[in-house]
Amino acid sequence: MSLSADAKGRLSTLLGTRQDAIIKEWTAIAARTLRGRQTEGELVHQVTEVFAALDTVLHTGDGGIHAADAGEARATLSELSRQWARRGFSPTETATLVFGAKEAVVGVLDTEGRGEVPVDFMDLSRLVDDMGLFTFETYTRAREEILADQTEQLLELSTPVVKLWEGIVAVPLIGTLDSARAQVVMEKLLQTLVDTGAAYAIVDITGVPAVDTQVAQHILKTVVAARLMGAECVISGIRPQIAQTVVALGIEFGDIVTKATLADALVHTLRASGVQISRTARKGF
Amino acid sequence: MDRVPVLKIGEILLVSIQIDLEDHTAMQLQDDLSHRIVETGAHGVVIDISALEIVDSFIGRMLSTIASVSRVLDAETVVVGMRPAVAITLVELGLSLKGVRTALNVDRALEILAEARPGVLAGSAADEPAAEPVP
């Protein structure tokens, strides 16, 4: 968009001479939507920064917020919207913080008794809209980054491979098993088999809320891959409800050993690896 | 031409594949191995694929074929040291290497072979030359 030098000059004076009043009005408008989620001082500070960005944009070449020399303004807005995204502000709240400028300008002019809308208001509006959209884009990107980070953290958190005995490892699966997680679990389990040389692995699905064909497919793939590497896999922790679902869905576990509890699976693998379990009579019993 | 050595240790033939197998190398290995089994009367074959980063469907089928051929010649085949990535790829390809026994390492493979054939102690034949390359 292009803005004549005259219009820029007029807007610049309009904003410059009434800076304090506009910021005050703007802060009041923003505070309405935020309803006390942000302290007054912080809000004034942030509004002042946005105001400074708007002022910078007014002094730059064509292109508004996207102009080559508006880098500083862009950086300010990005930083602010990132901050808002991290603090869990809603899209409306974030956008209103920037769009409030228009209302503030009109409000200030109103109190001065100049009811009429200035000729350059359309241009100002367009500038502010651009800034608002830019803020919003950064906001969305920041939210996506946060989501991606959390997903990654969840993946790291949720896939421990624990050693139960010499040559026996277990993977307690907790939560819904989607393709991405299943892949991580599979890779981690197989790598552990290589690292520890364990010949038995127990996949415990006590914490998996539901087993559909896809989840079963993932588990079966893991078991077959472990077999290919030369380790035997046992599936444990199958709840009655899940056993019924599995049968109803017609999922075949074939010759894969399944046990109801992790304890049963451990006993099975211990026996298979040649360990003898016996209980010694204790005194007093 | 690249050739994969077949080493005889006692009653067992050890094949360690250290190069990426091309189709004709694989065919050559299959051929060499069946001859060596007959020559030596070996009762076990251990194929170490820990150096292989790529196992395609052709190599997968070769392993299955070798296992079947060896079984006909009264020798048990154990494939050893498959990498996790390779195992995942094979599963994704839908190949489960039916009829091939697998083990995590050579130690385990020797145990499996010893269990399968009690009385024959793996690698204990001291009077045999420990290893000889393929002629």
Q: Tell me the strand percentage band of chain B.
A: 15-25%
Oligomerization state: heterodimer
What is the CATH domain class of the largest domain in chain A? Mainly Alpha
Count of extended strands of chain A: 5
Please describe the biggest sheet of chain B, giving its number of strands, its sense, and whether it closes into a barrel: 5 strands, mixed
- Give the strand content of chain A: 5-15%
The CATH topology of chain B is Transcription Regulator spoIIAA
At the fold tier of CATH, the topology name of the largest domain in chain A is: Globin-like
Structure description:
The complex is a heterodimer of chains A (about 280) and B (about 140). Chain A is of the alpha/beta class. Chain A folds into two domains: about 150 residues, Globins (Globin-like, Orthogonal Bundle); about 110 residues, STAS domain (Transcription Regulator spoIIAA, 2-Layer Sandwich), CATH 3.30.750.24. Chain A is about 60% helix and about 10% strand. Chain A is built from ten helices and five strands. In chain A, helix 8 links the parallel strand 3 and strand 4. The longest helix of chain A has about 35 residues. Chain B is an alpha/beta fold and about 140 residues long. Chain B has one domain: STAS domain (Transcription Regulator spoIIAA). Helix content of chain B is about 40%, strand content about 15%. Chain B contains four helices and five strands. In chain B, strands 1-2-3-4-5 form a five-stranded mixed beta sheet, with helices on both faces. Chain B is globular and about 40 Å long. About 10% of the residues of chain B have low confidence. At the A-B interface, helix 7 and helix 8 of A face strand 4, helix 3 and strand 5 of B.
In brief:
The complex is a heterodimer of chains A (285) and B (135). Chain A is an alpha/beta fold and 285 residues long.
Descriptive labels:
heterodimer; A: 285 residues; alpha/beta; Globin-like; Transcription Regulator spoIIAA; 2 domains; five-stranded mixed β-sheet; 5 strands; 9% strand; rod-shaped; B: 135 residues; globular
